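Quick check before the chapter quiz. The format below is the same one you will see on the exam, so make sure you can read both the input and the output lines.
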Amino acid sequence: MKRFIIKKIDIYTSSLEFLTGFSIDEPTVNKCYNWPFINIAGWVVGKNRLITEVEVTLETLYLPLQTTSVGVPRPDVAKFLSNIPESKNSGFFSRFSVVGLPPRFEILVNAIDTDGEVIPMATIQVEVEGEGKDNNQDASSYLQPILLSALARSGTTWLMRLLISHPAIVGYPRYPYELHVAGYAWHACRVLTAPSGLTGLSHPDLFWFDLQRISSNPFFSSYFDDLSDWFKGEYIKRTLSHQQSTIESFYRYLSIKTLKQDALFFVEKQVVPYYSWLVWDLYPRTREIFLVRDWRDVFCSILAFNRNRGIDTFGREKVDNDTDFAHRLKKDISNLYKEYVMRSEKVLLVRYEDLISNLHEELKRIFKYIGIDSKSAVVDLVIEQASQPDPLLQQHRTSHSEQESVGRWKRDLSPELQEAVNAIFQEQLQAFGYA
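Here is the expected output.
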């Protein structure tokens, strides 16, 4: 059974500019928790606005893992803040799920006021202690996943096309090869196995009233603590099993539809490699390929793709200029690198430039890593099939040839922007061997 230990807690005293006071009472440093959840408890009182909720956010993705209401009676707080009425019910208690979380992660604990402003209170560092998987099911008979983890415009479309051309790999064979049936199911695993914060749709009285969305189970909460043994055991096990069976059923169907009944693996792109931790826990023979490319060329490819379509996407629409976009892209690259480093001993790093310059040998290396037929004759057939003309694939390109796509930043960018992106991406270029 996995156990999680609290390694460090950093309190943001600077937030007292906006808060009268707050405390993180639980967890404490060196406290251990058994899988599958960790408790967060304390109190918070706003200075100028009422604090209504506390959220627990995963530092890597800046997405809330759990949100809970502030309203637990705290007579101890009311005693020394007697002039502030809301101090009487200023407490909060929350449990967040660690299903599929990495062996080391940081969470942010934030207060949210009536205007929706987010005020950071603490950062908590957590590490796994002990061995074991998140579930006890044997998934060895299932089709096993190949995860293609990469940023957009890194060559994923071409590599997906190559992988799907192998007789042992099944995938959705239509451009842009971005069907995420398994990804959706793994996301559902995270959502449905999370304890309820009793807010919004996860409130026992409110889940009925939205026919388009679903939340974590309202009855998997501290309010129904007498039921927690079943929820954290049988409920989570059955939820994970159901989603795995759904994935298996779909890809078995697709393997028959594409005449690949003997396929051993299915493949999907993923732009949020954080979910890989869940997949590695669920499937004993998971394979993960990190595809990287000179980040300056990625930057250029995104800008060119946006120009061709006449619309800004991939995050460019959220900033004012190209330099700011480079800084935004840098954060995404850094997150990808963190995930790669944590799993580097069991994943495969592939460089786009090597695929272009030495495709045959790179494919042999990839197929050997996956554990499927890598004979030269098979590789030749894969390349031949993947190279069949596809008008949609032609529209996807932003350079005349694969060879011209390598080092395009030297031609596409002005000297000023070249200097800027070289400085911005310096650390990330060095990390992946592009210095």
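If your answer matched, good. The longest helix spans residues 228-257.
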